[in-house]
Design goal:
The protein has two domains: about 240 residues, P-loop containing nucleotide triphosphate hydrolases (Rossmann fold); about 90 residues, 2-Layer Sandwich (Alpha-Beta Plaits), CATH 3.30.70. About 40% of the residues lie in helices and about 30% in strands. Adenosine-5'-diphosphate binds next to strand 2 and helix 1. It comes from Fredinandcohnia quinoae.
Length: about 350
């Protein structure tokens, strides 16, 4: 569906040259939800603007939905761009127009007759769950509802690809989840290919099939989301994975636990997608000659395996504890010994 080959983009200003992306080789499949993650300045926005045909690369070629958008111009490019749509972090709605008018806007531009427009807008309003809100103005809507309008508008012309530019970054966690659910629903129902950029790993984990990790304009790692969570290769990827697996209060928790358990060892287990059930692990550890206590933490079972952090306390001979830790690590569960060794 989307192929990028040796893509590079250099911004030249009078004062200097900035290489925003380079050496990008990427293939995104038909019907896939593909995530691109990176910190600010990594080159994500540049990449998405290149995919949208808003910018031309300095080198390399880009094919989207069968169109080599780096080689076509004028009407051909405009036609190709109708198959590519985008939603934005701050929604980019027209504030003086109602929900219906916002959604109808791309249809108006395409000179779709009024009766057809009305029918299509009604369908879209239903699809994104905005029934009864068609005559509201954006200022009367919540953030999540505004993004639903953005999504409906993006789908108006039946695109083949939906690009999402930090589409949930301005929303609270609960609303983020509902918008992500909607994107999955649209992907499944319409078979639409979705490419999203984000700096939040939980977004990737929740809905993406594959992910590319960007750093300094390059893709440093890419693969199936499950695999990347299980075995992150690059340092930056590990940091992103920890975003999801380590809650903020972890440090305080560790200090508190170490105080409480001065003898033996407090171990932090990090589950990164291996679907081993927690009791299984602790039962097997018990077959070593040590005492095991589950202290606290939370493991959530998702489609792609178990994720989360759990603190356990092991008490016994150093030798047996070593063996138990070795066993845990063999299960692809990270085990970090805290403080008091
Ligand atoms: P991200 O979206 O990951 O934050 P960007 O693609 O916005 O990254 O930026 C990548 C690099 O390219 C940054 O160093 C940024 O300053 C630079 N850059 C982005 N857009 C422009 C532009 N229009 N002109 C000059 N430099 C730019």
């Amino acid at each position: 569906m989307i192929t990028l080959s040796k893509v590079k983009k250099v911004y030249e200003t009078k004062a200097n040259k900035v290489t925003a992306v380079k050496d990008i080789d990427l293939q995104i499949n038909d019907g896939e939800i593909f995530g691109i993650i990176g910190y600010s300045g990594a080159g994500k926005s540049t990449l998405i603007r290149l995919l949208n045909g808003l910018e031309l690369p300095s080198q390399g070629s880009i094919t989207v939905a069968g169109h080599n958008i780096t080689q076509i111009k004028g009407k051909a490019l405009r036609d190709a761009r109708k198959e590519i749509s985008m939603i934005f972090q701050h929604f980019n709605l027209l504030w003086s127009r109602t929900v219906k008018e916002n959604i109808a806007f791309p249809l108006e531009i395409n000179k779709v007759p009024k009766s057809e427009r009305t029918k299509r807008v009604d369908e879209l309003i239903k699809l994104v769950g905005l029934e009864g809100r068609g005559d509201a103005y954006p200022s009367e809507l919540s953030g999540g509802q505004k993004q639903r309008v953005g999504i409906a508008r993006a789908l108006a012309n039946n695109p083949k690809v939906l690009l999402c530019d930090e589409a949930t970054s301005a929303l609270d966690p609960q609303t983020t989840d509902s918008i992500l659910d909607l994107l999955v629903d649209i992907n499944e129902r319409l078979g639409l290919t979705i490419v999203l950029i984000t700096h939040e790993m939980h977004v990737i984990r929740k809905i993406c099939h594959r992910v590319a990790v960007m750093e300094e304009g390059q893709i440093v790692e890419q693969g199936e989301v499950l695999e990347v969570f299980r075995k992150p290769q690059a340092t930056i990827t590990r940091r992103f994975v920890q975003q999801v697996t380590e809650p903020e209060e972890t440090r305080e928790t560790i200090e508190h636990l170490i105080e409480q358990y001065p003898s033996g060892k407090v171990i932090q287990l990090t589950f990164v997608g291996k679907s081993t059930e927690t009791p299984l692990i602790t039962d097997v550890i018990r077959s070593f000659n040590i005492n095991v206590t589950i202290l606290q933490g939370k493991i959530s079972q998702t489609q792609s395996g178990a994720y989360g952090t759990l603190f356990i306390h092991l008490n016994g001979s150093n030798d047996e504890i070593e063996k138990a830790i070795h066993y845990i690590r063999e299960q692809e569960v990270e085990a970090e010994v805290m403080g008091n060794d």
